[in-house]
Amino acid sequence: MQNDSSTSVPSVKLNNGVLMPMEGFGVYQIADLDECRRSVLDALETGYRAIDTAQAYGNEQAVGDALAQSGLDRDQVFLTTKVWITNYGYDKTKASVEESMKKLGTDHLDLVLLHQPFNDYYAAWHALEDLYDQGVLRAIGVSNFYADRYVDLVKFNRIVPAVNQLETHVFHQRPQERTYMDKYGTRIESWGPFAEGRQGMFTNPTLTEIGQAHGRTAAQVALRFLVQDGVIVIPKTTHRERMRENLDIWDFRLSDQEMDRLRAMDTGKSAFMNHEDPETVEDFAG
């Protein structure tokens, strides 16, 4: 397989020494399995070497089929999936990870995350710890764990999460979570780096102006801001030209002044949901 992209994506070292690409391809909301398979193949041909899926997305099989069709060796692709809350509990979590590996066509996973901080996430975490000890999982982490839940998990368990995947974008930059994640050695990964286009992301005057100075789009500036600030990103698109655009952020750099302007855009509010809202918990439980 030949890459479209001439720009290589750098990797970061996780807290256990495993290298993870700073940019990957996300498949959230690609529910049509044929479209998902085609999109993952396009992403791999474009040059992506990290794929992020989840049990709850319902497309692990399509991702696995695309990986098999790509012709790439398994160790050339950093593969992430997430355990859904209905699969929490020690035995259920282990069984669900085994089922995910079958669907993905692999005997190991590079990163497995607990998808939400609800239900019996302690038992689920203990299962991931044991699978990590057995070498089945190269790294383990969490998703949507706000600062309080994150610190709780860190303080009362053996293994510190390698990654915490959070809604992170220019309008919601997560300074509190990052303070504690830096303290304990967990990498932040962004889901929704474009806020799904909300709050005028793609036409924002500041992003557009900075982009014009570099010959880039507002979307590229939004991604470049995150990765330059140490955030791993997994933008999702089903359009090959957008895949190329999202990957084409590694050969320019924002100035300190531009970074400060973008940091000033933080609203401190989610564009989607608040995981500390009881109604949110009820929605997930239901």
Summarize, please:
By secondary structure, the chain is of the alpha/beta class. Helix content is 41%, strand content 13%.
What does this structure look like?
This protein is α/β, with parallel strands linked by helices. The chain has a domain of 192 residues: NADP-dependent oxidoreductase domain (TIM Barrel, Alpha-Beta Barrel), CATH 3.20.20.100. The protein is built from eleven helices and ten strands. This is Oxidoreductase, aldo/keto reductase. GO terms for molecular function: oxidoreductase activity, acting on the CH-OH group of donors, NAD or NADP as acceptor. InterPro entries: AKR, Aldo/ket_reductase_CS, NAD(P)_OxRdtase_dom_sf, NADP_OxRdtase_dom.
Oligomerization state: single chain
Write down the CATH class of the domain at 11-195 and 230-236. Alpha Beta
Q: Please mark out the parts with pLDDT under 50 across 5 or more consecutive residues, or reply none.
A: none
Instruction: Going across the biggest sheet, name each strand in turn.
Output: 3-4-5-6-7-8-9-10
Largest sheet, strands/sense/barrel: 8 strands, parallel
Order of helices and strands: EEEHEHEHEHEHEHEHHEHHH
What fraction of residues sit in β-strands?
5-15%
- Number of H/I helices: 11
How big is the Rg?
Answer: 18 Å
Helix content: 40-55%
